[in-house]
Write a structure and sequence with these properties.
By secondary structure, this protein is mainly α. It contains 24 helices and 5 strands. Helix 7 (147-153) packs across helix 14. It binds a DNA duplex (14 and 14 nucleotides) through residues 159-164, 241-245, 247, 289-292, 295-296, 299, 362-363, 366, 370, 409, 412-421, 424-425, 488, 492, 495.
DNA sequence: CCCTCGTTGTTCCA
DNA sequence: TGGAACAACGAGGG
């Protein structure tokens, strides 16, 4: 039998600490490094009928560009090792099954992936490989721990608190240390046209010269460079405390911005973990989980584990750990939030940073997520989740859904009285509003005493700042004081109902609950809609 | 059953 | 700058 092996890249877009790659190259005469551009991922907008989708789709390019960066970088590195990346397009299952046969592959290696979409996809490929007599090797290397093992240790259920997770998890495995001077050459791919990594323009996105792109570029080289820079400041690493970061810092972000590299697997979490521990060893005194940098890696593990062990983790209905809450369906308010037109500069600036950069600080994400859901607008977390998923360069299925569950007080966190103020929260870090001025240039000349609440600026001040509220910049879509009070009340009611319907999270029951709640709502007016010409206090 | 504790709220007061 | 009030949740552990 010819010893042809294939490494199928999906996440794990790296050479270092890559067990699937290492296993594939061992004892193989030919190595076929493959990546399939999946239309499922490339689709710029999963809901093209939604208003404003054209603009949103253009912005989602940051995420795709980041992926293309990763692929170019991977291809370049493979070429220095006497190999190259074989890029294909189409439905991954169909493509894989075809080339496995055509290229006479005897060994297929790919990193295990816990997302439902990936599990379904990989099962089909694996089944095909099995009946074709192809050896399959699929190691866990995206996360520090194997989520299935942690769940088993906990008696078959995922731990639902961070602390209980950390107790179960133990020590992660050390990363592989293999380095390569060369890899087995690519075999015969006759009959296949294998293009090099396309540009986004070549993917059919048209002229993008006017777009502002994310300052963060993808790839393993970029990841390791960024990691090195982070690790150089040992004091910063050792004293890192997540909740103390400044969400308004954008010239020099207050966090590592390694999340997109971890998401695509340009950076191995196990290698990162080891590096952090080495710094801790040399420095001595250091912060601890949950707030430390290692603590952040463990948060990632926590969400991966719960997401893996929870059916319908990414929805409210049918999700056993998710509070059933009668979120309000208001497309106007939702679009205002998505497009950065809520009239709250702090909120809008964050949403614009999301569109332009595909990244914002963790606490900034909290602010806008709270505002959309339980804090002000009372709109479904799934709608916010979809926006983040498409626009964030680090959007990661388990972590994104987990954090939306958290922020909306649907799971993990239940203290719905703690609401971020869309005015004072940002002001506390950035009293002059420099962050707002940068991402919302229309407000750049607004005096600082009004920049967080521009509707309070006298007409003369608005004129002088060249920014008339209601014309150049929107009026606030809700009044925070009343809207947040209303949200608290709604949450209390929803919690009470959810408790009474405990253990009944089946789809049918939940639908019944929703109907019941909807009926209740129908009898009351919904006044949280945007007012055209007034700034009146909203009631519900 | 009860108790403790939870990465990251806001405002007011001393 | 630090503490208390606000109003109060649930998972996990005993």
């Amino acid at each position: 039998m010819e010893s042809n092996a294939m490494i199928w890249f999906r996440k794990g877009l790296r050479i270092h600490d890559n067990p699937a790659l290492d296993h594939a190259r061992r004892g193989s005469k030919h190595l076929f490094p493959v990546f399939v551009l999946d239309p499922h991922y490339l689709d710029p907008d999963p809901s093209p009928s939604s208003p404003g989708s054209a603009r949103s789709a253009r912005s989602a390019l940051n995420r795709i560009r980041f992926l293309l960066d990763c692929l170019s970088d991977l291809d370049a590195t493979l070429r220095t090792l006497g190999s190259r990346l074989l890029l294909l397009r189409g439905d991954p299952v169909r493509v894989l099954c075809t080339i496995l046969k055509d290229w006479n592959i005897g060994k297929l290696c790919y990193e295990f992936d816990t997302e439902p979409y990936s599990l379904a996809r990989d099962k089909q490929v694996k089944d095909f490989a099995s009946i074709s007599g192809i050896e399959v090797f699929s190691p866990v290397s995206h996360t520090l721990f194997n989520p299935a093992v942690v769940i088993e240790k906990n008696g078959g259920r995922p731990p639902l608190t961070y602390q209980s997770f950390v107790k179960l998890a133990g020590k992660p495995p050390t990363p592989l240390t293999e380095t390569y001077s060369e890899l087995p050459p690519v075999g015969n791919v006759a009959g296949y046209e294998l293009p090099s990594v396309p540009t986004i323009e070549e993917l059919g996105y048209g002229d993008l010269s006017q777009e502002e792109f994310s300052p963060f570029r993808g790839g393993e080289m970029e990841a390791l460079k960024r990691l090195k820079k982070v690790l150089e400041d040992k004091e910063w690493v050792a004293t890192f405390e997540k909740p103390k970061g400044d969400p308004s810092a954008f010239l020099k972000p207050a966090t590592t911005v390694l999340s997109p590299y971890l998401k695509f697997g340009c950076l191995s979490s196990r290698y990162f973990y080891q590096c952090l521990h080495n710094v801790y060893k040399t420095v001595g005194k250091h912060t601890s989980p949950p707030v430390s940098l290692v603590g952040q890696l463990l948060w990632r593990e926590f969400f991966y584990t719960v997401a893996f062990g929870t059916p319908h983790f990414d929805q409210m209905i049918g999700n056993k750990i998710c509070k059933q809450i009668p979120w309000r369906d208001d497309e106007g308010l939702f679009v205002a939030w998505r497009e950065g037109r809520t009239g709250y500069p702090w909120i809008d600036a964050i949403m614009i940073q999301l569109k332009k950069w595909g990244w914002m600080h963790h606490l900034a994400r909290h602010s806008v997520a709270c505002f959309l859901t339980r804090g002000d607008l009372f709109i479904h977390w799934e709608k916010g989740r979809d926006v983040f998923e498409r626009l964030l360069i680090d959007s990661d299925w388990a972590i994104n859904n987990g954090n939306w569950l958290w922020l909306s007080c649907s799971s993990f966190f239940y203290q719905y009285n703690r609401i971020y103020s869309p005015i004072s929260f940002g002001k506390k870090y950035d009293p002059d509003g420099n962050y707002i001025r940068h991402f919302l240039p229309v407000l750049k000349d607004m005096p600082k005493e009004y920049i967080y609440e521009p509707w309070t600026a006298p007409r003369s001040v608005q004129k002088k700042a060249n920014c008339i509220i209601g014309k150049d910049y929107p009026k606030r879509v809700v009044v925070h004081d009343t809207a947040s009070k209303e949200c608290r009340k709604e949450m209390a009611e929803a919690y009470a109902l959810d408790r009474s319907g405990d253990n009944l999270a089946s789809k049918e029951i939940s639908n019944g609950l929703r109907r019941k709640l909807d009926d209740q709502k129908a009898s009351r007016p919904s006044c949280l809609k945007q007012k055209e010409n007034t700034d009146q206090i909203t009631q519900h």
